[in-house]
Amino acid sequence: MISFVLRRLASAVPTLFIVVTISFFLMRFAPGGPFNLERPLPPQTMANLMRTYQLDQPLWRQYLTYITNAVTGDFGPSYIYKDNTVAELIAKGLPYSLELGFYALLVALIGGVLAGTIAALRQNSILDFAIMSVSTIGVTVPNFVVGPVLTLIFAVILAWLPAGSWGDGSLRFLILPMIALALPQLAVFARLTRGSMIEALHTDHIRTARAYGLPARTVVVTHAMRAALLPVVSYLAPCAAALLTGSAVIETIFTIPGVGRYFVLGAINRDYTLVMGTVVLVAIFVIVFNLVVDILYGLLDPRVRHD
Amino acid sequence: MTDMVYTPLAPLPETRSRSLFQLAALRFRRNRAAMAGCVVLVLIALFSFLGPLFISHKYDQVFPSYVSVPPSLEARPNAGSLQEAMEGVAARARVTLKEFAVEGQAFTATVTSDSEIDPRTTRYFDRANEFDETQVVATEDGGKTLKLEGKVSREYFFFGTDSNGRDMLARVMLGGQISIAVGLLASIVSLGVGVIYGATSGYIGGRVDNVMMRFVEILYSLPFVFLVVVLVVFFGRSFILIFLVIGAVEWLDMARIVRGQTLALKRREFVGAAQALGLTDWQIIRRHIIPNTIGPVVVFVTVVVPKVILLESFLSFLGLGVQAPLTSWGALISEGANNIQSAPWLLIFPAIFFVVTLFSLNFAGDGLRDALDPKDR
Fold first, then answer.
1. For labelling alongside A8, which of A99, A284, B79, B239 has CA 20 to 30 A away?
2. Of B198, B311, B208, B302, which Cα lies nearest the Cα of B257?
3. Measuring CA to CA, how many Å separate A118 from each of A128, A221, A229, B107, B218?
4. Contact B218 A249 (CB under 8 A)
5. Nearest CA of chain B to the CA of A30: how many Å?
6. Which of B253, B246, B240 lies closest to B326 in space, CA to CA?
7. Are B347 and A145 inside 8 Å of each other by CB?
8. Which CATH superfamily groups domain A93-304?
9. Highest mean pLDDT among B43-47, B140-144, B145-149
10. What is the ipTM of this complex?
11. pLDDT of A99-110, one tens digit each?
């Protein structure tokens, strides 16, 4: 097991390297630059800026400098958030995104699996139909609609919860963004669980377990759930990576100072270093969660062997 | 083939066997939710593409006097406000309004005064936005009472208007055209790239397969938002390129699915037979592998179309989608979400169409999957 983890981590290094390389050159070949503002800067200022940030050097040298610096953990200064390095910006924003994303992931996972299981156990009943309809809506309504609608209902009309901002970080401030973030994922988990649970309930070992006269709860929770969770677990990796690294939409709507906004702001403003920082961040999350999922797979399905 | 002698076979029995496709079609038609989904999709497509022929307003036509008016089945201005406007005009013309009626696009009014009324007072009426071409049709009481007739310009805004005074109905139709077009075209792009890539990778196998799938994995670990935003920035904001870009990002799952199918297919006898006949790899992929992967691929397309429409709406939210005066459902929805308190109809109408379309696509896709699933007879 340990050698499996180590091997996977070792193979992640070249992947990460290629990801960085692709995004570095993709970003640089896009037209425009970080200092091409609506009102052009005087040529002298522009030249100074380019020299300060070493943007006047040949691309391959910039690339080498970036790679060597990045290996030592130096991701360079941000071009739009002056006086901040990319590492500082991410270190500042990540805790917010992580906390919010973690709660949203919990809500989506527990709620989705629960709803999907209930729907599968009462297949084709009204309850099943209701759960599936709601989850279809959850998948189809964009979160930039869910956000404002939730705000309107709970913050403006009912005035139960604050409309936005992190505030003091207490749960009251987190509930609305958390729901808006979790809802689409909850719907996906519910659909996945329902499908695989129905399949699992029709397998031979479940029939055997039932024939033994085991209580229904034991059959479902300890026997069927194990098999039913496999597709859920494999969706967990992209979902967790997406939720924990923040959502540009949700963070904009609820004015949360997380890292999700940086993807979009960085790419639009050609803040090369900031974008590269976020790319590395997401790639690391994706790689780590893929590894976690593979380990979970081995725990859930004894046929999967890591050696 | 032409010189082959045709010998008639024994007459076929009455009950003909059904092909896999016919069986699937039969199962699909029995699935009520899926059929309803299809019908709704057709209706929405008709509404979006043929609807503009039946309404008089253009999507970019601005009505300066009707900015942000709520939706209503009544013509605007309504009878009450016309009455008010007419009373205002009458007061300015120093006459008393006795009777006033609106019929369609015309109005009739009777005004009186203590002294004789100058027929030129009709100018006062024309000066108001609402009334036009006012004429005196009859004079009574020796000129103290005038009967007037004229035109009222009245407009129907069933979905209300946006903050620029454009008819939301026309805009929702246009948005539908663009969202549907983007969804379909991007899916076709992702279909083409994904199927060819996946089939090639799976069929050739070995080292080529390893490298090709490694590349897919690398693209998976690139943040999706980053990829889309950079590509949009890269290609500018032209409408055609947006869905090419989206398709170029969405093909990864398709490639994986097709590769998995191909791995299973290439061990089958008919592929071996084709190889024995001396067909090239590309011929086998094209004629034997790809047609056999069509089932899961079709199902997956019904997943990709809503995904692409959602993605387009996300781009619109970021301001990277289609540019005004063109619009899409996503652009309308994000605009509506900004004005949710002051003008909820800007959100409600596009959102209803958007959600109903995606809902129907989901049901149709589920039905298709059940219909094509060979395990479920």
1. A99
2. B198
3. 7, 12, 14, 63, 37
4. no
5. 5
6. B240
7. yes
8. MetI-like (1.10.3720.10)
9. B43-47
10. 0.74
11. 889 999 999 999
